[in-house]
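Exercise: predict the structure of this protein bound to pyridoxal-5'-phosphate.
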Amino acid sequence: MIPMVDLKTQYHDLKTEIDAAVLNAIESTQFILGPNVQAFEQEAAAYLGAPHAVACASGTDALHLAIVAAGIGAGDEVITSPFTFIATAEAICYTGATPVFVDIDPRTFNLDPALIEAAITPHTKAIIPVHLFGQPADMAAIKAICERHNLLLIEDCAQSFGAAVNGVMTGAIGKLGCFSFFPSKNLGCYGDGGLITCATSELADEIRVLRNHGSRVRYHHSVIGFNSRLDDIQAAILRVKLTRIGEFTTGRRRVAHLYSDLLKDVATVPFEDGKGVHVYHQYTILTDRREQVMARLGEKQIASAVYYPIPLHKQDVFAAACAGISLPVAEAVAGSCMSLPVYPEMPDESVRLVAEAVKEALVG
Ligand SMILES: *Cc1c(COP(=O)(O)O)cnc(C)c1O
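Solution:
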């Protein structure tokens, strides 16, 4: 059996350190906004090269808190990708704003900057590019559009911890960056967790207040806030794993590059432009014979998955609002994409077995 991800091997590699960190956090009994949360925020900000970082309860909350802190709400429009996990659009909707979906680049599966300006209206307040599967979006072009139209740039970095463009990490490019520590993400904790990177101390301060019931001083509440804090136990685990993130990224890229070598003649393999560091949260190929390939992998006890089978503008929840909208690239990619197992510790032999099975299905 070759799984999509193998969290157990990584835990066993780090068990001594993680178990000690968790037991220390429990012994301290500072479970909420304790010392590990503060230390992790500083360590994550330093790693990412971001001026400030604020931890919260999930990646979805990170997006929601960022959008609220940006002052976006009812009547506003936010441009984002239709080819992402639903949370990107959910967070926009929580505030009463409307997601406006713009089609993607077929090579990167990320927002196509050439199509963004046609979607800007007087109501547009922000653009949220998603660095899907760990591939950075075209941030130079998107940032230029934001500057030209005075729009806020909020990055969805849930799948891109450690990815970079021209030496700058995702999350340190826009005004706000939103990360998820869901267990299977590139940097994952052992439950839910999230983080917002902020370009200014004002935004960081605002988000610190929002995540803790709108309170700066205990039992004094200045705004309606939320209960969205990262647990100290999770922060303790993340501090251990953050020291290894470089190795994790190297491992994922080793697996991806071996796959691409083996599969480039039989399927469309992931694109790398040489300017960005793709961190391969997923290794996703395009093939017009997806069902055939997935069936063959299944017979050989090899996992595979479709991220994502239905673009957001075609989801029931948005179908009425998006009636008549056609985003042909997102629709075509959703119809032919499939993701193969990838995790930092995946042995080369397993990568070869998976690639062999894919080739058998496609060339016989
Ligand atoms: C995982 C994910 C989220 C949400 O993160 P959670 O921690 O699961 O709430 C948001 N956007 C994208 C692109 C994701 O992959």
